[in-house]
Amino acid sequence: MGTGNIMGHTKSALFPGLKVKLKTGLTALFLIFIILLLYSISSLNQQNPSVSEKKQSGKELYLKHCKVCHGQEGAGRSNIPSLIDAEWIYGKQDSIVLDVIRKGRYGINGKMPAYESIIAKDEIVQLVEYLKKLR
Ligand code: HEC
Predict the structure, then answer these.
(1) Ligand 1 pocket check: which of 64, 70, 78 to mutate, most ligand atoms within 8 Å of Cβ?
(2) Which pLDDT tens digit goes with each residue over 49-104?
(3) How far apart are CA 98 and CA 124, in angstroms?
(4) Domain 58-134 carries which CATH code?
(5) For the CA atoms of 57, 62, 65, 68, what is the dihedral angle to 10 degrees?
(6) How far is the CA of 67 from the centre of ligand 1 (A)?
(7) Residues enclosing ligand 1, CB less than 6 A?
(8) 51-76 burial by CB neighbour count: b if 16+ within 10 A, else e?
(9) pLDDT at 8
């Protein structure tokens, strides 16, 4: 057993060891990458149902935007018109109700705010459907 022998032995043991370490490192990095990728895909999937849930809930939209004036049950108060009575100022047709909510109105009862820049059109459609359930 000379010194060269030991050196040779050390070298040959060192380099394959490095290669294995490199491979393990790269494999680990690759696995971390895949895990992060899967995680971001799954969190994207988790976001979608909550978004569509919000879109579907006309009630949530009503309570958030309209309740303050038209009341929890849509009965209105003082100058704010009821949304559950027989007499409607502008009419109850879907297209009219949609237009009133989107563009707003400024009539004898005061100002009904426009919501077209606040609530997405498909969500306003959900609101129109919810108003039908109230009356
Ligand atoms: C700041 C108070 C206020 C808020 C908030 C409000 N409204 Fe109104 N709304 C009014 C007023 C006042 C009128 C009557 C306007 C008029 O006389 O032309 C009205 C009218 C209406 C009408 C027409 C009723 C009829 O008899 O033809 C509908 C439908 C309506 N609002 C729905 C909504 C919905 C849905 C929301 C929520 C997205 C909402 N409003 C939020 C005040 C409000």
Answers:
(1) 70
(2) 545 444 558 999 999 999 999 999 999 999 999 999 999 999 999 999 999 999 99
(3) 7
(4) 1.10.760.10
(5) -150
(6) 10
(7) 65-66, 68-70, 80-81, 83, 88-90, 97, 100-101, 105-113, 115, 127
(8) eeeeeebbebbbeebbeeebbeebeb
(9) 53
What does the CA dihedral 20, 24, 30, 35 come to, rounded to 10 degrees? 160
Give the pLDDT of residue 107.
92
So where are the chain's domains?
1-56, 58-134
Q: Considering the entire predicted model, what is its pTM?
A: 0.70
What are the pLDDT digits (tens) for 109-121?
999 999 999 999 9
Residue range 12-29: average pLDDT? 74
- Could you give phi then psi for residue 127, rounded to 5 degrees? -60, -45
